[in-house]
Amino acid sequence: MRLKTPEDVMRFLCKEDPYGIILDACKDESIDWSDLQWVQQNCRPSASYPKSPMPCRHCGVTASTATTSYSNTNGNAGRPYFKCPTMGKFLVFADARGNDPTNPLCRCGVSSKRTMSGFYNARTPGKLFYVCRIGMCEFNKECRDARGGQVVVDPEIVDYLILLEII
Questions:
Q1: Does the pTM of the predicted model rise above 0.70?
Q2: Residue ranges per domain, the chain?
């Protein structure tokens, strides 16, 4: 499934059934980005995220806080995250983006974080996938639509999905 329009996003979020019937708020309506913003803010709860450094899953030392560069071209400019202070490895983003309680459970037993592969140097640019939202395990799973197809985002709508905290 390629996400190109607000309708595509709503179909994905509402888990369109295999027969093409769109569930919830998107049924038989034309949707725009402000509709999606209302749905995201009022109908889709966000799962919690780490607000303070936790022990690194690699070495056990308390993680350090960092911020992505404002020149980041993958939609993560200025985004806070935690990293291992001894190994310098990224652990987890420290924000609510992509944290949906309906996401699959990771190995820690909590709902995962939905994120996207970058558009540069990625085998499948714009591919959605799930990772551990608390940064404590190596969970990584491709995001699939209701029909089992890989979900990929068009570059033109990335900013909207970031604003809506979908990715």
A1: yes
A2: 1-46+97-167, 50-95
